[in-house]
Amino acid sequence: MLKMNRNQLPSPAHFDPTSVSKVWKVDYQTRANEAESWAREHAISPAAEDAFKVCLIPVDVQNTFCLPDFELYVAGQSGTGAIDDNRRLAEFIYRNLHRITQISPTMDTHQPIQIFHALFLVNDRGEHPGPNTIVSLADIETGVWKFNPKIGHTLGISPEYGQQYLLHYARRLQAKGKFDLTIWPYHAMLGGIGHALVSAIEEAVFFHSVARYSQPDFQVKGDNPLTENYSAFSPEVLHDGEGRAIAHKNTQFLEKLVKFDAVIIAGQAKSHCVAWTIEDLLGQIRQTDEALVQKVYLLEDCTSAVVIPDVVDFTDQADAAFKKFAAAGMHIVRSTEPMSQWPGLQI
C-alpha cells in the first residue's frame, strides 16, 4: 500500500482532461471498482471519519451551461470559459478526493412553461418574445408583453390572475434591485441531455462518492413555473400580489451548510447563479453567526460570467460581486493551489 500524499492526490488514469467538452455514458461499475481500489491504494478513509468536514458545491455544472453546442453555454470572455472551468474543477476533485467530505451539485431544472421562457408571454399579435429578451416593468405596464392566457389551464390559474401576477413579479424584481425578467432560451429541460451534469464532472462526483462512501447531495432548483431561481437557496419571488406563498427558500440546505467546517463553491455562471447563491449563503451566515463567513471558499478559476458577444457582458458585475464577498470575509482561492495552503483550513 502506498502512503497517501496528505497535500494532494494524482488524477486517476481514467480522467482525460481533453474530454471535458464531450458527452458520454459513464461506465459506473468499472469506475466503482476503480474507486474502491483507489481508496485502498492511497489510504483514503471514509468521509464519515473526517475531523474537518468540507462540502463542495458545483453550481449548475450542466451540459446546458457548459458545452458550446448547448443552449446557454457560459463562454466567458475567453470563449472557452466553462470548458476550462470544468477541467480545473474535475482535477480539483480528484486531487482533493481525501479532503472533500461531500459534494452537493445544484441542478437547474426547467420545463417549457415557466416565467422566463418565451411561451409564458405574448404581445398583441400573439407572438412570443425571442431568446434573451429583457422584459422590463414598463414593458408589462404598457402592454408590450402580457401573460399568455393559453397556458393558464396547465398552471391552474386564470388569465386575470396570470396578468396580475406578471405585473407583481416585475415590480418585486425592481424593488429588490434584481435583474429585469430575462427570457432565456429553453434550457436545462427536465429529462433532456442539457439537464445532465457534464460527463467529466458526473464521473468525478461518482468516483468520489464510491471512494469516500459519501452520497452526493443533489439540490434541484428552478422548477417553479412562477419564478426565476438563480440562487440554490431561494427563488427570486416568494409571494404573489396577495401575499400568498408561491415558492419557498431551501432552508434545509442552508442550515446543513453552516455545520460544515468549510464550504467550497464553483460552477456557472459567476454573474448569475453562482453570485446569487453566494449572496444568499452570506445572508444566512449573517443571521446565524458572522464568524462563519470565514469558512466559505470561492474557486475563482472554476467559474465564468455570462458573455453574449455584441449583446451583453456581465464580467464586471461578477467581479464586483466577488470583491464584495471577499470584503465580507470569504476567501477567493484557486483550484490549482493546494488546499493545505488555503487560509483557515485545518487539514
Number of helices, where a helix is a run of at least 4 consecutive DSSP H or I residues: 10
The proportion of strand residues reads 5-15%
Derived from helix and strand composition plus strand pairing, the structural class reads: alpha/beta
Whole-number average pLDDT? 95
Number of domains: 2
- Principal-axes geometry comes out as globular
Number of strands: 13
* Rg value: 21 Å
Largest sheet composition = 5 strands, parallel
User: What order do the helices and strands follow?
Assistant: HEHHEEEEHEHHEHEHEHEEEHE
Strand order of the largest sheet: 2-1-9-10-13
CATH architecture descriptor text of the largest domain: 3-Layer(aba) Sandwich
Cα distance, first to last residue? 22 Å
The CATH class designation of the largest domain is Alpha Beta
Q: Could you state the CATH homologous superfamily of the largest domain?
A: Isochorismatase-like
The residue fraction in helices comes out at 25-40%
- What is the CATH topology assignment of the largest domain? Rossmann fold
Low-confidence stretches: 1-5
